[in-house]
Amino acid sequence: MTNSFLSDTTSTLNAVKNLALGVLPLIPTERRYGANSITTKELEAALSPHVPEARLNHLEIEFDSKGTTDRARLHLHWNESGVQANLPTTAFVKGTPTTVSSRILNSVFGLCETEVRFYNQIYPDVADITVKPYVARVGAGGRFVIALEDLSNRASFYQTGDQPSLAYVEAMIGALAKLHAKYWQSPRFKRDLSWVTPYAQRPGHTLSHLVENRSEEWLIERGDAPKTVLRLTRFFLENRRAVDRVWESLPPTLCHGDPHLANTYTLTNGQVGLLDWQNMHKMNGLRDVAYFLGYSLTTEQRHTAESNLIKRYLEQLAAHGVKEVPTYSQAFDLYRLLMLDTWTSVWMTLAIGGMSDEDLGEIAIKRVYETLEDLDTEKALRSAVQSL
């Protein structure tokens, strides 16, 4: 109890400190961060190490959107050597959010720091399922900048409410299995990846409880949630610590953390991948599987393909070298249970107005209502908590 109290207190104090830094309109080092802070020299060094005569004469920034992060496209103008070497002429950049609320979100929950560390340390291991980084650095108070390969001319992207083909869903399940197999109960979590936090130790986790309580009020006020979903939600809120213990008792791997459709892509050659690694953490891999399928499949698709997709995931884990792959029965029970985390994401994101398209949000929440009832996630959660 004492260790838990100290851990919660430390986490809360860090969150309050980061909240204050996020509120500040300016901190001394801020000029090194933000979408417009990338310099020609650093991009030149990143993009032309093997073309010594190449020079990036200048770059232009074209802002795209301002939300959770500020996003822009950089247009790169090379000298003749750079042109002849066919160096990239554009790059995608995301950086310090302009809006205070988004800066606080990034700072308190450590989103930008997690993603920068992913690209600087983990990217080489999973380069075939994500985007190539050029520059990634982070400061305090939600200040950061990441410049990435621009995939816009050779990739297709998705929205949360899109209906993907079964072939695409199968490919994404394969990509998740490849990611998870790479770090399945990895000893690196005690060495160079010790900074990858378990689910309940993510930055700002204790403060998220305040959001959860307000979000339940919003859910009740909607008036359309099935009684089983309301009971499930109340039981979860009353047993947060126990749920955290359940999550952390499961065999861990490195999870993407937010693999909904809008954070995925497919290249023209059919290769698929994942974007936005801000919510990456250490957790059981079936958490990502439940999250992706819960967000991505229509009810009809799930009824038809759910079982085969879970089997495919297990087969892919084995193919990538995991020795102790769960049985299908074990995996399906975990899938039912871990659908809870898909639910908390959908419900709380909508409650705080964090989903930009309200229509897509309505599609997502009603889809998850049906999923929770079909899988009887309430029963799975109660059984898991009672087994502690």
Keywords, please?
single chain; 388 residues; alpha+beta; Aminoglycoside 3'-phosphotransferase, Chain: A, domain 2; 2 domains; five-stranded antiparallel beta sheet; three-stranded antiparallel beta sheet; 50% helix; globular
How would you describe this structure to a colleague?
Residues 1-13 have low confidence and may be disordered. Helix content is 50%, strand content 14%. It folds into two domains: 2-149, no CATH class; 155-386, Alpha-Beta Complex (Aminoglycoside 3'-phosphotransferase, Chain: A, domain 2). The radius of gyration is 21 Å and the shape is globular. Helix 6 (166-182) packs parallel to helix 11. It has 14 helices and ten strands. The strands form three sheets. The protein has a five-stranded antiparallel β-sheet, with helices on both faces. A three-stranded antiparallel β-sheet has the order 6-8-9, with helices on one face. A two-stranded antiparallel sheet has the order 7-10. It has helices spanning 2-23, 40-47, 80-84, 100-108, 111-122, 166-182, 208-222, 227-238, 240-248, 286-296, 299-319, 328-351, 358-375, 377-386; strands at residues 56-66, 70-78, 90-95, 133-138, 144-149, 155-157, 253-255, 264-267, 272-274, 281-283. With 388 residues, the protein is α+β, with helices and mostly antiparallel strands.
CATH level-1 class of the largest domain: Alpha Beta
| Biggest sheet architecture | 5 strands, antiparallel
Structurally, how many domains make up the residues?
2
- Low-confidence stretches are 1-13
Strand content: 5-15%
Q: How many distinct helices?
A: 14
Give me the CATH fold name of the largest domain.
Aminoglycoside 3'-phosphotransferase, Chain: A, domain 2
